[in-house]
Design goal:
four-stranded parallel sheet, 4 strands, 26% helix
C-alpha cells in the first residue's frame, strides 16, 4: 500500500493495523531537507518514497529531480535499517540514476 498526500506516521500505523500488506509512505520534499517527522516515518513504514514536491502541481509525475546529493548526509542515519526501504522518485532518468 502506497500512501500519498503527505501521510503522517499515525496514518501509516492506522493502515498497517488494518492490512497485512507492506505500507509505504511518500515523503514529498521541496528542498534537500528531511522534515522533523521523517525519522518516525522510517520507523513505522515498510518503505519511504522520496519524491519532489512542486507547488501548484498534483501529487507526483512532475519530472522534477530531487537534490539527492544534498539529502544523502541526512539519509545516512537510516542506512542499514532492516525494516524500512528507501525508494527514490522525482525526475528519474537513465542519465541520473
Amino acid at each position: 500500500v502506497q500512501l500519498h498526500a503527505d501521510p503522517t506516521p499515525g496514518d501509516v500505523e492506522r493502515v498497517r493495523a488494518r492490512t497485512p500488506r507492506t505500507v509505504w509512505a511518500v515523503l514529498r520534499l521541496d528542498a534537500p531537507v528531511l522534515p522533523p517527522h521523517a525519522a518516525d516515518l522510517f520507523r513505522v513504514a515498510g518503505g519511504v518514497v522520496l519524491d519532489a514536491k512542486v507547488t501548484g502541481h498534483a501529487l507526483g509525475g512532475t519530472g522534477v529531480r530531487l537534490d539527492w546529493r544534498g539529502l544523502a548526509p541526512q539519509l545516512d542515519a537510516f542506512r542499514g535499517d532492516d525494516h524500512c526501504g528507501l525508494v527514490l522518485a522525482g525526475g528519474l532518468r537513465p542519465e541520473n540514476v
